[in-house]
Recover the amino acids of this structure.
């Protein structure tokens, strides 16, 4: 896996550097602002602390000073290790973390080495293997194969561990919001 790491990093950074942020109503924009300024500031703290602890920033845009909204630029980090915020905490924003693995088993162990579990994705040319890994080996509430994790109103969506309890959406999600009333009469 590591033999292809440099090529992957180069192509990944090229792709991330082309992503535009701004008004989400603009068709040329791929992502809009975060929900609140404090969330943007916390994401920035997570990135900066990780870099100060030894993570290598392969790409980082500038936080716009004149925009309306809590925009945060795309960031790509590598050399991320356990103990860094970019490894140990959930990053809610356009920050990609590249963590290299020795082999498939190591990659699964790294992915599962967290107290969170909202979503996980497997990218592979072997769909059968990717489906097995997503369904049976990754500890996350939502898993995708060859795509990004996203919510779909037809499917339940929710995390496990510290990423949530229960789910939303679909038949199962509707049941989460229903109160059952018991009446006992003697």
């Amino acid at each position: 896996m590591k033999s292809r790491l440099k090529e992957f990093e180069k192509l990944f950074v090229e792709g991330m550097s082309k992503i535009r942020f701004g008004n989400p109503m603009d068709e040329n924009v791929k992502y809009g602002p975060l929900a609140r300024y404090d969330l943007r500031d916390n994401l920035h703290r997570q990135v900066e602390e990780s870099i100060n602890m030894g993570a290598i920033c392969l790409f980082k845009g500038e936080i716009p000073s004149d925009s309306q909204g809590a925009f945060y630029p795309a960031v790509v980090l590598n050399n991320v290790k356990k103990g860094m915020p970019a490894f140990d905490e959930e990053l809610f924003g356009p920050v990609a973390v590249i963590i290299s693995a020795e082999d498939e088993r190591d990659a699964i162990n790294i992915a599962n080495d967290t107290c969170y579990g909202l979503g996980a994705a497997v990218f592979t040319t072997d769909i059968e293997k990717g489906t097995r890994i997503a369904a049976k080996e990754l500890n996350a509430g939502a898993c995708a194969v060859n795509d990004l994790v996203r919510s779909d109103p037809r499917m339940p969506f929710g995390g496990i561990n510290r990423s949530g309890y229960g789910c939303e959406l679909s038949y199962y999600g509707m049941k989460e919001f229903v109160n059952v009333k018991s009446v006992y009469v003697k």
About this structure: The chain has two domains: 1-100, 105-186. The first strand starts at residue 56 and ends at 60.
